[in-house]
Design brief:
heterodimer, A: mainly alpha, two-stranded parallel sheet, 1% strand, globular, B: D-Maltodextrin-Binding Protein, domain 2, 11-stranded mixed sheet, 41% helix
Chain lengths: 600, 342
């Protein structure tokens, strides 16, 4: 029985990783092959070449042969450079919007972190609870909420027009660059808020006190001491926000701005609409390379001695004081209310009346059932794989020193779901397999399991070495250690990771979109289709169901994780690996913990 | 405890996989008595012609229709191309005259002339006089204008570039949507391949958004996001039929208009070819075509069908019809996209 379970778990884990590698490779492969779209790739290059050859026909052929070849060669290299230029422009636009989105997130996130960490005020708990927004509410719903709330005829514009008597909607930012970065910025600021406030709350008192004693002003202390101490977590949070915005898909797709579009949207268009696979492959390769460079570069930079301070005595939060602080709090709070809370509330408000009608529709209940099935499936695969690799990591790297095990959890951040989906469709195309729901489950799991790994590994590390050592000495089989010690000890983390992955899977609309499985609709795809057809009320209703189920799952996940202390929390663990950036065993907190519990 | 937990998780994955896979199986089983149709959203959605047509067909023949909505018209085509060697669909619906060159090049369809095809369908609707696509509806492209928006109505394409229409025009992406491609073709017909870049350059600031499909764009328009949208001369009939009055007007431009014919195609190697042929026969029959005007909001292809009351609100078919140089259209779209990305 145990052997069988262990065998199955190993098989699942290994196959999933293999699957990931194969699909990733087949996403990039078309870039190097001559497979330039089956029927209607961008005919510009081919067309131009054939025009060049065509015009030469009829004149003296032998004399023209050389000219012809030269002409088509220049045409080809022309087309090549134009292609490079195009990709460069898209990449530039993608980086530009990601950069400014991060700036917006920082502008909101830093003051918010300050208030959450250092001040007491009514609404503090609410603000802190927003920190799960970026993970638990799918971006699709943010886009939907923004159109309902900030659209030309949205709640906000109508209210302002009614109040001021203006004839023209005063706020048109939504359909522009500003719309994208504001949506991204406010959607992702909670990541910055959470990482920075976690550090801020636990800053050691000593340096601050020393500065106060030497008579430094408050601002000077902030500038020279606090900011310096916060820098790693600010950078860590920014990297995540940057990458999330870099890979943003649904928001850009739904706002459909004339002109600028991101890498992710272009890969989708090329893979799904123009069927120019070579171009899609080139884009995917460029996108993934850029993101990987960013991640690796960050990890390498981060090696230079960064530490986190945990468990050290720190300043308790005090009341908000001074007019400046009140003003800042009002501005930040108002902005968050306006750009995040109200658009989301608008969805629930619009959708609530539609719920009963929705539940009586067969297409909706099918989509709901499909979502439950896929998210349960992919979450189970994630947890099994994560547990397997956590066991491996425990054996191979018991003290958390290996860079490999630090980098692995960051992998899904460098490869986007659109790229993986494109790779999978390539594989299916080659072997004439139609898309099936199983593939959706497997692909989602292949992208999400590292998140579960992060969590399970945290729990595994808390099992004292002595316990595992004794267990392996006393039990006849190595499997006993796994099944009688490691599995029961990490049970809570496993369930927590399970709920977490299920929620991620349920909210994901990218993979169902790009895989385009016939006769199969998940709830988020259903919502996307309704939103795309501007059946707003219905889209909001189905979106409300999605929000509520995600929130319940996350709350469940958080609660389970919470009993073990905050360290298992997903976002924090995730960010910490960024903040540490591959530092070899520099985690003071863990050492302290170990020395206490293991007498080392 | 022990192994139970891992077993539970494994069981979960097995169950869900079997569950998801099993449902597919059951769909496959009665393949002999069904016909599978890929259609674009505006046909397949519950407010389009699809559901009513399929129900009538099922009642009449007892053949089960599996209507699959795959997104925009271009995605209908691209999905079919991807499955070329092992087709899932028997019929593609929503391909139009502007997409026709690509349809022909893809070589995935087989010409089929439905019973009575010659009699009920005007020859002018056929593409290249052939039956590769069976026309089922048509209309002229036109800008639809909200006459209560308080701004002046444009009278030609050139007017659309005026400053008063800043951020007031909703268009669709020519790569994904047939009206989007139709508008691109319209500008190509009026300005030619040399003038098209300049036109779009001056139009750019006035475009509120390029929606991915007609449903999205027209939905934005009816939500009041902008007073101008690209659609068809027949679109106002919809608002009349739903008692929304006649504030939305189709504008006749002095440049002349291009038109769109939407057609259905029979897949080569279609798994249920006989059923598919029956469906195409049905599609152009008077019985089915009577459903078309008030669901697709286009003229029915069958010339014997009487137009419903709501179509009285539709202005006459534009006098001046423009033709488009199809060979240039692909390049024109590239030029337009390049201009927009500038």
């Amino acid at each position: 029985m145990k052997q069988f379970a262990a065998f199955c778990g190993t098989a699942v884990a290994v196959l999933l990783v293999l699957f990931f590698c194969v699909t990733a490779v087949s996403a990039f492969a078309p870039a190097f092959s001559g497979d330039s779209g089956t029927a209607f790739g961008t005919s510009s290059s081919m067309g131009a070449a054939s025009v060049a050859t065509g015009s030469a026909v009829g004149s003296d052929e032998s004399a023209d042969a050389a000219v012809k070849v030269a002409a088509s060669d220049t045409q080809k290299s022309d087309a090549f450079w134009r292609r490079i230029d195009k990709i460069k422009n898209i990449l530039f636009f993608t980086i530009k919007q990601a950069f400014f989105s991060t700036v917006v997130a920082l502008i909101i996130g830093l003051p918010a972190a300050f208030f959450v960490a250092c001040r007491k005020f009514p609404g503090r708990r609410f603000l802190a609870s927003l920190s799960s927004v970026s993970l638990c509410i799918p971006p699709l719903l943010i886009a939907l909420g923004y159109v309902i709330f900030f659209g030309m005829n949205g709640v906000f514009n109508r209210t302002v027009m009614a109040l001021t008597g203006a004839k023209e909607p005063p706020f048109t930012f939504l359909y522009s660059f500003a719309g994208i970065i504001i949506a991204h910025g406010f959607y992702n600021f909670p990541i910055i808020m959470r990482t920075v406030s976690d550090t801020w709350r636990n800053l050691p008192e000593d340096e601050y006190n020393a500065a106060v004693l030497s008579g430094a002003s408050k601002f000077r202390i902030f500038r020279t001491v606090t900011l310096f101490q916060l820098a790693p977590s600010i950078a860590g949070g920014s990297v995540i926000v940057f990458l999330y915005s870099f890979f943003s898909f649904v928001i850009v797709l739904l706002f459909g701005q004339a002109g600028g579009s991101t890498m992710e949207v272009e890969v989708y268009q090329a893979a799904k609409n123009t069927l120019d696979f070579k171009y899609a492959g080139q884009l995917a390769l460029t996108e993934t390379t850029a993101a990987s460079l960013f991640v690796v570069g960050y990890v390498l930079l981060g090696k230079k001695g960064r530490r986190t301070h945990a468990g050290v005595s720190s300043l308790p939060p005090v009341r908000v004081h001074g007019a400046a602080e009140y003003a800042l709090l009002a501005v930040i709070g108002g902005a968050i209310l306006l750009f995040l809370v109200l658009p989301l509330a608008a969805i629930v408000f619009t959708g609530a009346g539609e719920l009963i009608k929705l539940f009586s529709q067969r297409s909706f209940s099918t989509a709901l059932l499909n979502t439950v099935a896929t998210s349960l499936g992919s979450a189970s695969l994630c947890v099994v794989t994560a547990f397997f690799f956590a066991c491996v990591a425990r054996r191979a790297d018991p003290y958390g020193k290996s860079v490999v095990f630090r980098i692995v959890p960051l992998l899904p951040m460098a490869v986007s779901s659109i790229v993986i989906g494109f790779g999978l469709t390539n594989v299916m195309r080659r072997f004439h397999i139609a898309g099936t729901p199983v593939m959706l489950v497997i692909t989602q799991a292949a992208l999400t399991w590292p998140l579960a790994f992060q969590q399970v590994r945290g729990a595994m590390e808390r099992i004292p070495m002595t316990v595992t050592d004794v267990a392996s000495l006393l039990s006849p089989s190595r499997l006993d250690v796994i099944f009688r010690v490691q599995l029961p000890q990490t049970r809570r983390a496993l369930f927590s990771a399970f709920a977490f992955c299920a929620a991620i899977s349920a909210g994901d609309s990218n993979l169902p979109l790009i895989l385009g499985i016939p006769r199969f609709e998940t709830l988020s795809l259903y919502t996307y289709r309704l939103a795309g057809a501007y059946r707003f009320a219905a889209a909001c209703g189905s979106g409300t169901v999605l929000i509520i189920s995600s929130m319940v799952l996350f709350a469940f996940s958080d609660k389970l994780a919470g009993r073990h202390g905050a360290e298992t929390r997903m976002v924090r663990g995730f960010v910490r690996s960024f903040v540490r950036g591959g530092v070899r065993g520099a985690d003071k907190a863990r050492k302290v913990w170990r020395s206490k519990h293991m007498g080392r | 405890m022990k192994a139970r937990l891992l077993t539970i998780f494994l069981l979960f994955s097995v169950i869900s996989v079997v569950f998801a896979g099993g449902r597919r199986e059951s769909a496959k089983k009665n393949a002999s008595n069904e016909v599978v149709i890929y259609a674009h959203d505006s046909f397949a959605s519950e407010w389009g012609a699809g559901p009513a047509l399929c129900e009538a067909f099922e009642k009449k023949t007892g053949i089960k229709v599996n209507l699959i909505s795959v997104g925009d018209a271009v995605q209908v085509l691209s999905n079919a191309i991807l499955e070329k060697d092992a087709p899932v669909a028997d019929i593609l619906i929503g391909l139009d005259n502007n997409l026709y060159p690509k349809v022909k090049a893809a070589d995935i369809l087989e010409a089929y002339k439905p019973v009575d095809g010659d009699k009920v369908i005007d020859k002018t609707l056929l593409m290249e006089d052939g039956w590769l696509l069976v026309p089922y509806d048509w209309s002229s492209f036109a800008m639809i204008f909200d006459s209560e928006s308080g701004i002046e109505a444009p009278a030609c394409l050139e007017d659309l570039t005026k400053d008063i229409y800043r951020k007031k025009i909703i268009l669709m992406d020519p790569r994904t949507s047939t009206p989007g491609l139709g508008f691109a073709a319209w500008t190509l017909a009026v300005y030619g391949k040399d003038g098209i870049a300049d036109y779009w350059r001056s139009l750019k600031a006035n475009i509120l958004t390029m929606a991915s499909g007609w449903s999205t764009g027209y939905g934005l328009f009816t939500e009041g996001e902008a007073p101008l949208v690209i659609s068809y001369t027949t679109s106002p009939a919809y608002h009349v039929a739903y008692g929304e009055g006649d504030k939305f007007k189709a504008l006749e431009f002095t440049d002349g208009h291009t038109y769109q014919t939407e057609g259905a195609g029979l897949m080569k190697n279609a798994p249920n070819k006989d059923n598919a042929k029956k469906f195409l026969d049905f599609l152009i029959s008077a019985e089915a075509q009577e459903i078309v005007p008030e669901t697709q909001w286009m003229y029915p292809a069958n010339n014997s069908v009487e137009l419903p009351e709501s179509f009285k609100a539709v202005s006459a078919v534009p006098a001046k019809v423009l033709t488009v140089d199809m060979d240039e259209l692909d390049k024109a779209v590239e030029i337009i996209l390049a201009v927009l990305a500038e």
